[in-house]
Amino acid sequence: MAFLAPLLAPSPAAAAPRPVVSCWATVIAPDQVRVTWTSATNDEADRYAIYRSRDGRPYFWKGTASRQDRSFINTALPVGSFRYRVVTISASNERRATDCGPSGAVNIGPAAPAPAPTQTVRPVASCWATFNNDGRIRISWTRAPGDNAQRFAIHRSRNGGQFFWAGMATAPATQFLNNRPANGTYRYRVETVSPTGLRAARNCGPDGGINVGSPTVNPSPAPRTIMAIGDSITHGRSDRPSWRYPFQTRAANVRCAIDMVGTETRWVDGPPTANYAGFDHDHQSFGGRSTRQAADSAIPAARTLRPRIALIHTGTNDVLSGTLPADAGRELRRLIDGLRSARSDVIIYVAEIIPAGPARATETARWNAEIRAIAANKNRLGSPVRTVDMFSGWNYSTMTVSYDNIHPNFAGSDFIARRWMDRLRNDRIC
Fold first, then answer.
1. Mind listing the pLDDT tens digit of every residue in the chain (430 residues)?
2. How is domain 22-108 classified at the CATH fold level?
3. Domain 126-212 classified CATH 1.10.150.120?
4. How far apart are CA 367 and CA 155, in angstroms?
5. Is 126-212 in the same CATH topology as 22-108?
6. What are the residue boundaries of the structural domains of the chain, listed by start?
7. CATH superfamily name and code, 224-426
């Protein structure tokens, strides 16, 4: 069945933050780096967050600076090659990021790699987005001579919003197929990436974007846009891929059209492997996140992507860290309110989470009781909040990886996917 969102009068929005104009990382001691930045005029900043990547790995938060600060010192650094990113954060938690120079990163310790030879990278000569015959969107490009490309990153923008990563193609590829997104007007950008990480981007035609949702394009019901929110259990890793994949398989088996949305596309340890090339990788989760951090990430993303359905599995890290259910519960309420502020008719499903290990089963049960109470309190006509029981029937010996008895293995991921899909089918969404 398809969902028709009511037409809402636009509400006044707070001014969006502006990214810093420039930032630079400098080694100031054998184990210290100073990150300095120049803020944009009237940047609407409430604070700045500093993130760091080591040896080409994902970026992680390293600290926060006040709106008056223009530098940050990162101390006690191990040996390695580091890149930094400064994120402008507004009072409403909207974020805009800028990657810092130097382009070759900064090296700490004698074992750090030597600076790479100076290289250049050239953007594609041209690129264009068209509909494929199966409803997906095909992005095609013409490579520039001597572009020094190792791969091409594809980004997309919906309805004039900011660009988010949509996928990757390895050189010498000259096209990419993007799974059919939710209704809207989309623009695409192709970014040439060199072996050393240098980047050069070009926006794709047509100038007016490409419209998804017109009956002349695809008369079938629009996919249900679903945002999967959580921690490493939803994020997944190469040795234990997320429940998001068997969930999509189950949706396809019952012909339930879905579009997974989110600003994340990777696993904990890198991009999904070739075995999962046909799946939609978009999600809004990250390993190690608490419920507070999940809310901080999901709320601004929801304002841009406006998911119709949210599937939330959060609280494992709160249980493991000893956070009181009432404290984590306040953050879950904030997450629910934030999703509704982005879309008033969002349907929210909150998992009664799988046990956080055999030693924390009692604490997990207390958190799940808090979830049930919050769902009952927050449930309302037009934007229901419903719980999905993942706790009952969980089997440590057959459903978790042996090294921690917490994270689901393939059988555990399928168990979670089945519970989600059973509830969606029971509610006649699929």
1. 444 434 444 445 567 888 988 888 888 888 888 888 888 888 888 899 998 888 778 888 888 888 888 888 888 788 888 889 999 988 888 889 888 887 667 887 764 444 445 568 889 888 888 777 677 888 888 888 888 898 998 988 887 777 888 888 889 888 898 887 777 888 899 999 888 878 888 888 776 677 776 433 334 457 889 999 999 999 988 888 899 988 988 888 888 888 999 999 888 888 887 677 678 889 999 988 999 999 999 999 999 999 999 999 999 999 999 999 999 999 999 999 999 999 999 999 999 999 998 889 899 999 999 999 999 999 999 999 999 999 999 998 899 988 888 899 988 999 999 999 999 999 988 8
2. Immunoglobulin-like (2.60.40)
3. no
4. 38
5. yes
6. 22-108, 126-212, 224-426
7. SGNH hydrolase (3.40.50.1110)
The pair of structure tokens assigned to 100 is 């810092």
